[in-house]
């Protein structure tokens, strides 16, 4: 008996449409459908979406969410715009206290914090502002902090092929502050180390010392 080619099931069809985390994403629904979804949420909360204060809320929420997740529509190539330079240096480059804003993928509530990013060049350096822009690109997505930290490190490692990369992210999660356990003042720290930062404890310790040096003055 010859079996015909099986048809993909519905889950497979859906999975093929789901966004991949490291590619530019195209919307699967229209902006009007998004606005209607916000309107439905307001109704579910017992609100009247037609009252004066909420009449334009669906439009505003969609606009805000698109801005807060605009990192899905950026690529590293566009972001860098050629700002990688050949330089004969092998000393640590550190940009610390980079303001970082993201959104928790579990509750779509803010993640507010800072990133500290270092690398040791191996013949190539990157414009310093591009390090902040890489953090911003990955931050403006629905995230968990562990993935965000690793994505920043892996992006630099892939772009520059340096001797090593180290990233520390320190952030407060509003899903822990405003709801749930409701613990204002709690912070989460995550790190990702690559290359010499992973292999050499002294290099890693130098990085950790520098990100905390004179912090009271900032």
Termini gap: 75 Å
Average pLDDT over all residues: 88
Tell me the quaternary state: single chain
Sequence stretches where pLDDT stays below 50 over 5 or more residues: 1-21
User: Might you state the CATH topology name of the largest domain?
Assistant: GTP Cyclohydrolase I, domain 2
Read across the widest sheet, the strand sequence of neighbours is: 5-2-3-6-7
User: Order of helices and strands, N to C?
Assistant: HHHHEEEEHEHEHEHH
CATH class of the largest domain: Alpha Beta
Put simply, the count of helices is 9
CATH superfamily of the largest domain: GTP cyclohydrolase I, C-terminal domain/NADPH-dependent 7-cyano-7-deazaguanine reductase, N-terminal domain
CATH architecture label name of the largest domain: 2-Layer Sandwich
Which structural class do you get from the secondary structure elements?
alpha+beta
Overall 3D geometry?
elongated
Protein name: GTP cyclohydrolase 1
Subunit structure: Homopolymer.
Pfam family, one: GTP_cyclohydroI
Binding site for Zn(2+): 104, 107, 175
What features would you describe in this structure?
- It catalyses: GTP + H2O = 7,8-dihydroneopterin 3'-triphosphate + formate + H(+).
- Helix content is 40%, strand content 22%.
- The model is unreliable at 1-21 (pLDDT under 50).
- The termini are far apart.
- The chain has 218 residues and is of the alpha+beta class.
- A hairpin with a 5-residue loop joins strand 2 (93-104) and strand 3 (110-120).
- Helix 2 packs across helix 3 (57-68).
- The strands form two sheets. The chain has a five-stranded mixed β-sheet with strand order 5-2-3-6-7, sandwiched between helices. Strands 1-4 form a two-stranded antiparallel ribbon.
- It folds into two domains: 31-70, GTP cyclohydrolase I, N-terminal domain (GTP Cyclohydrolase I, Chain A, domain 1, Orthogonal Bundle), CATH 1.10.286.10; 83-212, GTP cyclohydrolase I, C-terminal domain/NADPH-dependent 7-cyano-7-deazaguanine reductase, N-terminal domain (GTP Cyclohydrolase I, domain 2, 2-Layer Sandwich).
